[in-house]
Amino acid sequence: MATDTPTPEAPATGEPEKKKGFKFPTAFTVLFFVLILVWLLSFVVKPGAYDYVACGDENPKPIPGSYHPIEVDTTFKDKLYDLWLSPVNGLYGIQPDQAVVAEAENASPLAVLSACGALPDGFTADMDEASMSAAQIKTLTDTLETAAGLPETADGEIDPGTIVVLGPKEPIGPYESGNLFGAVQVFFFVLAIGAFITVTMATGALDAGIGRLTHRYRNQGTVLIVLLMIVFSLGGTTYGMAEETLGFYALIVPIFVALGYDRIVGATVILLGAGVGTLASTVNPFATGVASAGADIELGNGIVLRAIMYVVLTIVTILFVLRYANKVKKDPSKSLAAKVPDDDRLHADEAEPAEMTGRQKLVIWIFMLTFALMIFSVIPWADFNENWDTFTLGWYFPELAALFLVAAIIIGLVGRLGEEGMVNNIVSGMGDFMGAALIIAIARGVTVIMNNAGITDTVLNALEGIVSSLSGPLFGVVMFIANIPLAFLVPSSSGHATLAMPIMAPLADFAGVSRAIVVTAYQSASGWVNLFTPTSAIVMGGLTLAKVGYDRYLRFVWPLLVILFLLVCGFLAIGSVSAIGGS
Using CA atoms, how far apart are residues 476 and 288, in angstroms rounded to an integer? Predict the structure, then answer.
């Protein structure tokens, strides 16, 4: 989820105000400078293009080794117009279909068939076409011509064996005719999620549920740590729970202090609980969803690896916090947290919170079932067993946006918010999430400028030589590491995804790895960095509310960061060479 919530201010102390040091700019400012930088580079970087191929009903992909220079007939006025309209094109720009060509300009039949995994028996991708016999070349040419001319199936679908060679990508604009390139579907989906979460919070059901859970296990510290971290991690992995956690510090941190722990334990139950869930997002729309859209793959592609990562990394994080918590409770002198006045007078509140009403319980059930339906609807069940095709709904952002809007209305009715209250909360929720939605549009606008200047494939070509020489396991690790600096610059997970995926996802095609690995690598890097980066309002805001110094938090968390880094690298290496990584 976007991390644009302002950091809460520390309480006034009466001391003279210190001079403010450097403050890292917001994601909007960073993206603005990236936008200008890319636009300026479009005057310097030479345009070029790959030959593309569409295999069956898959999206077109570049043919390795087919890059060639091209001429882009644009004037300074045209480039300035592209810059002016970049956010608009990023939201609802249209890209005409790539032209079908009789043969690839710079790719041989061997390369085209190899890109689709359709080489005839006796041929391999590393064969030298120059040393082939005339009969072998004719076999390749005939195979490609046959694949290009396959008719549609009886159901009117594209035959899976069809191979179509395409020309360069066309310029994007608001008045073109073709496919939607802009991120308006994702944009509206983010607003729908905002409405859904805000309406749910307005009913008080989530606060009441956390309050009851905390009170019930107030004298069972270990159980409370485990349960709360699981709850927050589920929020992280399903919808990128971030800003919503800030409201729980005032409730949860004093309870852990009263139970004999320190403020670091209370803070990290929330911060690391939600954070590790977001790192290992399974269907988080702000990370996995936006990245999958940018990579042109289904949201459920790669979900098996991500689910395994979620379980393992969450367990490791819980054990890490428990180890420290038990050490501090046994010997308070080993606490890394500074003493806060009045901590010694805190005690576990024995007053039992009000019983949850039937309506609040029903709201919680609807809330959970909505996310369960979202998960079910995006999983490609037929990939696991062709007999399960009946269960495959194949929903994407339009259907998911409708799901959350309808669920928001149902929850508003069940929670008795009233017509005005429900409408106000839906509008307010959309407003709260407008920042994240706009970041997606602006970041997509950067991609539009690169596309219209013809330099996207030039950048890909510069990276092709690097990734094509990487082994499968190493590719996933390199993608993870490459995304870490970008995550520092753009803490917004959705902005990071929109900016990076159009460039990084096609690299998987060159390396022979699923694009889902690039998505998992990106979200892991973004989630890992957002566990500790000072550019995140969630980290700094949470620590401020918990009254934990950033330096003390770093001393606590750095061993866990190392462990998570190594585990993520291991998972990505395995996923790159196995079916669990994605198709």
Answer: 16
